[in-house]
Amino acid sequence: MKAKRALLVVDMQNDFCPNGALAIPEGDKIVPAINKYVRIFSRKKLPILATRDWHPPRTKHFRDFGGVWPAHCIQNSFGAQFHPGLKLPKEAILLYKGMDPEKDSYSAFHAQDMRGLSLLKLLDLHGVKELYIAGLATDYCVKFTTLDAMKQGFKVRILMDAVKGVNLKPNDVEGALKIMLKKGAKKLTLKDMEA
């Protein structure tokens, strides 16, 4: 089987976009670029996966229960839904993470589909060897997903025009990118793909 590429869209949810509970500045601005990548991967019949935070109402991840973050992406809430502009095909594989109230689960490698299959298992089933990663946030879930992917032996392309960061501290995004690139991830844009 020919080694496949797959598109992984990380946490493109209402709560991480403007007016959301944990809004990333201009988080919604990357939706058109993500949709273009989705079209490219759809045309080539390559797998498209999308994760979402799917937290229970009580979790150590939230500030009220000892965590860092305000409550966000609570299961079945409006905030946990994908951004309305995101155009995922019906065959996209949806994954859920953050369901364990004892864990933060930033990485998509902690996610599973509705049948309980892990991201790693799904990538293996599809023969995927290279991940193209888009979504939110560069300095958290994108970073941890990228590092875990490389630990598992995947090649990773960070889609620079389709990621945005939180930047809790001014240089968090820059620092996260440095770490990912140092470990072997490569940057990519739509222009590169079209070339």
Largest sheet: 6 strands, parallel
Radius of gyration, taken over Cα atoms and rounded to an integer in Å: 15 Å
Oligomer class: single chain
Strand count: 6
What is the string of SSEs from the N terminus onward?
A: EHEEHEHEHEH
Strand content: 15-25%
Q: Enumerate the strands of the largest sheet in spatial order, edge to edge or round the barrel.
A: 3-2-1-4-5-6
Describe this structure in words.
This protein has helices at 31-43, 119-125, 141-151, 172-182, 190-194, and strands at 4-10, 48-53, 93-97, 128-136, 155-164, 186-188. The protein is an alpha/beta fold. It has one domain (4-194): 3-Layer(aba) Sandwich (Rossmann fold). The protein has a 6-stranded parallel sheet with strand order 3-2-1-4-5-6, sandwiched between helices.
Provide the fold topology.
Layout: E1 4-10, H1 31-43, E2 48-53, E3 93-97, H2 119-125, E4 128-136, H3 141-151, E5 155-164, H4 172-182, E6 186-188, H5 190-194
Parallel strand pairs: 1-2, 1-4, 2-3, 4-5, 5-6
